[in-house]
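User: Sequence recovery, please. Input:
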């Protein structure tokens, strides 16, 4: 079977490795992260929206499209639905289980940037781990706050009220504890991405008694089949 995997996550790479010995797999990623070492074909870059993806499916005679993108890559997931419908190709999805608060956690759930800012009122040193969005608001940092922002990559930013860290997980708990202590963090801002690669920050926050502002996931479109385990998905195609 000719399969296109929309990837960019560790689980997507694992799926590609499981399926490659049996099927003709193309692994696609947007190009924002590290290109994985795979024996299947790897495509880097966008498709030009849902219509472009549909054209790619037709041109490459794809028989199954698998959306294994990041839980917050909602636009790609919507494009995948459009493309699958247009090209008459089945669409399956892997959706990583979300995190849930554990004993000792203190979460404030939010839906967007405005709710994040409201939830941060009263805190002094937030640690943002939600991507580039905080950098777009560096001129709006309250006078009583100092921001620590960690993301995959960004243009250098000079600000007396913000420190930018460009780093890629996974991160160890000891590293996260030391980082939060060094920067005197009193609140962690995180996306509910799930997974273990960046879960250490939540464990560190729990250990240090640091509150968490948790950005909840966008609503993703309904697809033909959805899996929450890579092994189960791969087993259906073995």
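Assistant: Recovered sequence (238 residues):
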């Amino acid at each position: 079977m000719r399969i296109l995997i929309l990837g960019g996550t560790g689980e997507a790479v694992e799926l590609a490795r499981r399926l490659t010995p049996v099927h003709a797999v193309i692994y696609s990623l947007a190009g924002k992260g590290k290109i994985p070492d795979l024996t299947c074909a790897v495509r880097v870059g966008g498709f030009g929206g849902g219509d472009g993806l549909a054209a790619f499916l037709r041109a490459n005679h794809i028989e199954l499209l698998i959306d294994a993108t990041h839980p917050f890559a909602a636009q790609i997931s919507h494009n995948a639905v459009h493309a699958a419908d247009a090209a008459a190709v089945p669409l399956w999805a892997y959706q990583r289980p979300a995190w849930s608060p554990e004993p000792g956690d203190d979460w404030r759930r939010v839906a967007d940037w405005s709710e994040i800012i409201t939830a941060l009122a009263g805190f002094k040193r937030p640690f943002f781990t939600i991507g580039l969005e905080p950098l777009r608001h560096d001129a709006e940092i309250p006078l009583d706050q100092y921001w620590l922002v960690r993301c995959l990559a960004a243009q250098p930013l000079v600000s007396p009220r913000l420190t930018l860290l460009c780093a890629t997980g996974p991160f160890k708990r000891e590293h996260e504890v030391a980082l939060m202590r060094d920067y005197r963090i009193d609140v962690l801002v995180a996306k509910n991405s799930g997974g273990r690669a960046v879960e250490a920050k939540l464990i560190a926050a729990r250990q240090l008694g640091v509150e968490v502002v948790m950005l909840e996931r966008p609503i993703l479109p309904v697809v033909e089949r959805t899996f929450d385990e890579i092994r189960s998905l791969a087993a259906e195609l073995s």
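The chain has two domains: 2-97+219-236, 107-215.
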